[in-house]
Structures are given as C-alpha cells and as structure tokens.
Prior knowledge:
This protein is an all-alpha fold. It has two domains: 1-74, no CATH class; 76-167, NusB-like (N-utilizing Substance Protein B Homolog, Chain A, Orthogonal Bundle). Helices cover 69% and strands 2% of the residues. The chain is built from seven helices and two strands, in the order H-H-E-E-H-H-H-H-H. A two-stranded antiparallel sheet has the order 1-2. Helix 3 (63-75) crosses helix 5. Mean pLDDT is 84; it is low at 1-9 and 163-167.
Amino acid sequence: MTKFRHSKRRSEDKSRSASRLAVVQALYQMEIANQDSESALNEFIDHRLGQEIEGEQYMEADKKYFAGLVRGVVEQQHDIDRAIARSVPKEWPFDRIDPIMRAILRSAAYELMQQPDVPTRIVVNEYMHIATAFFEDGEENVFIGGVLNRLARDQRPAADVEPAAGQ
C-alpha cells in the first residue's frame, strides 16, 4: 500500500512539473505573440500537453493545475511584476529581463504568493530546474536563483530558503 501511495505521489509530482514547464512556455508565447490567455490555454490543452509534436513528446501535465497557474498569473500580473521588480538588482529594470526569464519568474512568484500549500523549496527548485532547461548553466541561472530566493524570503519570510550560488 505504501508503494502505491509513493508512486501516485511521484506521478502527481511529475504532472505538476510538466504543468509548470508548460505554464512558462504558455506565458512566453502569450507575451511574444501578444496572445490572450484563453487562446493559449486552449492551444496547450488541446494540442500540446501529452502530445507528440515534431518528434518531441510533451509530458502529461495536470491540466487543471496548468490552467489555474496561467489564469492566476494573468489575473495577478500587476502585483507579481511589482514583487519581481522589488527582487531584481537595481541595475536590472524589469523590462530588461529576457521574456523567458520573466515567464519563469512570474509563474514562480504566483505560486509563492498564492499557493501556500506548495512548499517554498519545491517552488524554488522546480523553477530553477526549468531555468536550467532553457539556459543550461549560465549567468541567467544565477540571476533567476537570486531573484527566486529574494522573492521567497519576501513572500514567505518564515520559509527556509537556501541562497542560490553566487548570492
């Protein structure tokens, strides 16, 4: 019985991880293509999540979690962007941040601000993993890690958050 729960949990974790990656992709697409959230949601749910596209298999995602994150980021974007702007170094104006980095930070900030049931370490680790998928091991990851840790400390002061490398 314990094994079943464990594997169910791992499956749920993978599905949420896939949801987070898809949210970052959807937010990026929305910004670059000036696409509204409902169109992006429909496209991802109907044609991407769990599908094979050009030989690449998209992981099966928790569609409800995915949709909730996308809608939440869009609805709270003003507050999220203000929180991110407070967490970036002063020499980095918000509009100077790369669009994919903004998508990562927005989604993570939303979870930190509005999903108290998701542990802080999970949020930070998941989005750092996503950042690595896009930027490998560059300066971008150090930047994202620093901003995520500052956001986490700001939004969840009681949480135990380790500083990112280089901070």
